[in-house]
């Protein structure tokens, strides 16, 4: 599904030199490379504050902690997403309110969110799923109307651009009150281990976020609040600093691969190629198809027989996961989420793909179509 090894070989000299610099300096924690990467990412995103942390789940948890929500407060979250988005809500004794998503973009919308808002709603977490932005302008308008916070889960869409109705653009993750991301190795901007970051343009929130990630202190041994220990180590920051320089090219490579798939697969009646949000670029963390006519299991078996990797993101709605059953109504049914869990499949997509690889993959898919 990804080829981190070949990607490394293509930037090996840069990466090796960056790692050696950290080892030579012996400044492994909060060293200069962390501050350098933080500044570079702030510039790339055009955001006032980036707070590096240990991983994407920590980023979401710290973001919620900074808002000082109280047990029982409701946080709206899509049911079609990775577990971490809702996990941190429950961990903090908040109530995850799971909602459906748009059947074409797979992202939550303002219309869906508004139906779930109650007097207990304090925040919403739109997820920019698979590489493109949720429609953020109406979501931000809705949040302002109801006085609720917006935390963007940008783990899959770093580098994507959202265009507002006045034709201005912003990077995903910088539009809400707080944005979060993951640097898990398979992400579009991936480390060689764990890592994450939090974004905000609000100075007061930035101060809280930094303190929470550092044991609740901004002066050593003086703890203003209960926090946690979540930091990006210097070696990972050095690696990410190199890869950030290549991120635009990586996004272009993924978009080129997606266009190849689109052209090859567009005429198969039982496949729906990814829909592009009209006001967002798509950086294709995943290339996800909807498989109709009950053909997904047949396609999975066919791809396995041809040695083609694939992913199913996600096979089960969050509200059907055992861990969340006590948080949601027993009769909760979200039809789009349930349909997607039964029909989506993701093909390999990464920065090192070439036409030979993609031709084999698409021929494998098409050969099932010819026999179906």
What labels would you give this structure?
Aspartate Aminotransferase, domain 2, Aspartate Aminotransferase, domain 1, 13 helices, 372 residues, 15% strand, 3-stranded antiparallel sheet, alpha/beta
Architecture overview:
It is a single chain. With about 375 residues, the protein is of the alpha/beta class. About 45% of the residues are buried. The strands form four sheets. A seven-stranded mixed sheet has the order 1-9-8-5-4-2-3, sandwiched between helices. Helix 2 (about 10-25) runs antiparallel to helix 9, helix 3 runs parallel beside helix 9 (about 235-245) and helix 11 crosses helix 13 (about 355-370). A hairpin with a 2-residue loop joins strand 10 and strand 11 (about 220-225). The radius of gyration is 21 Å and the shape is globular. It folds into two domains: about 5-245, 3-Layer(aba) Sandwich (Aspartate Aminotransferase, domain 2); about 245-370, Aspartate Aminotransferase, domain 1. It contains 13 helices and 14 strands. The protein has helices at about 5-10, 10-25, 30-45, 55-65, 85-90, 110-115, 135-145, 205-215, 235-245, 245-265, 295-305, 335-345, 355-370; strands spanning about 50-55, 75-80, 95-100, 120-125, 150-155, 160-165, 170, 180, 195-200, 215-220, 220-225, 270, 285-290, 345.
Number of helices: 13
Tally the beta strands. Answer: 14
Widest β-sheet, arrangement of strands: 1-9-8-5-4-2-3
The CATH superfamily of the largest domain is: Type I PLP-dependent aspartate aminotransferase-like (Major domain)
Distance between the termini: 25 Å
Largest sheet: 7 strands, mixed
The number of domains = 2
Output the helix-strand order.
HHHEHEHEHEHEEEEEHEEHHEEHHEH
Judging from the principal axes of the Cα atoms, what is the shape? globular
In helices, the fraction of residues equals: 40-55%
CATH-scheme architecture of the largest domain: 3-Layer(aba) Sandwich
* CATH classification class of the largest domain: Alpha Beta
Low-confidence stretches: none
- Measured by DSSP, the beta-strand proportion falls in 15-25%
What is the averaged pLDDT score? 97
Fill in the CATH topology of the largest domain: Aspartate Aminotransferase, domain 2
């Amino acid at each position: 599904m990804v080829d981190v090894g070949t990607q490394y070989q293509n930037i090996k000299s840069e990466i090796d030199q960056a790692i050696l610099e950290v080892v030579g300096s012996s400044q492994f924690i909060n060293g200069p490379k962390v501050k350098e990467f933080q500044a570079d990412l702030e510039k790339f995103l055009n955001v006032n504050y980036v707070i590096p942390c240990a991983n994407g789940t920590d980023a979401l948890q710290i973001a919620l902690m900074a808002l000082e929500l109280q047990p029982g407060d409701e946080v709206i979250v899509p049911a079609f997403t990775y577990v971490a988005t809702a996990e941190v809500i429950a961990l903090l004794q908040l109530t995850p309110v799971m909602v459906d998503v748009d059947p074409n973009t797979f992202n939550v919308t303002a219309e869906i969110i508004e139906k779930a808002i109650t007097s207990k709603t304090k925040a919403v977490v739109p997820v920019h799923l698979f590489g493109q932005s949720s429609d953020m302008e109406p979501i931000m308008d809705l949040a302002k109307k109801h006085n609720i916070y917006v935390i963007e889960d940008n783990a899959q869409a770093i580098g994507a651009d959202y265009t507002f109705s006045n034709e201005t653009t912003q990077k995903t993750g910088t539009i809400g009150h707080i944005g979060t991301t993951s640097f898990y190795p398979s992400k579009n901007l991936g480390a060689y281990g764990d890592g994450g970051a939090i974004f905000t343009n609000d100075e007061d929130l930035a101060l809280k976020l930094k303190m929470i990630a550092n044991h609740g202190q901004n002066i050593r041994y003086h703890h203003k609040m209960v926090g946690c220990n979540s930091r990006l180590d210097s070696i990972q920051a050095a690696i990410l600093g190199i890869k950030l320089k290549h991120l635009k090219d990586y996004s272009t490579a993924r978009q080129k691969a997606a266009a190849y798939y689109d052209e090859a697969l567009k005429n198969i009646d039982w496949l729906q190629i990814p829909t592009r949000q009209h006001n967002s670029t798509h950086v294709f963390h995943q290339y996800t198809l909807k498989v109709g006519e009950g053909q997904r299991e047949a396609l999975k078996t066919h791809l396995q027989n041809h040695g083609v990797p694939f992913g199913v993101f996600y096979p089960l709605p969050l509200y059907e996961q055992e861990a969340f059953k006590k948080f949601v109504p027993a009769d909760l049914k979200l039809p789009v989420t349930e349909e997607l869990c039964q029909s989506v499949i993701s093909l390999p997509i990464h920065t090192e793909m070439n036409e030979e690889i993609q031709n084999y993959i698409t021929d494998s898919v098409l050969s099932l179509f010819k026999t179906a």
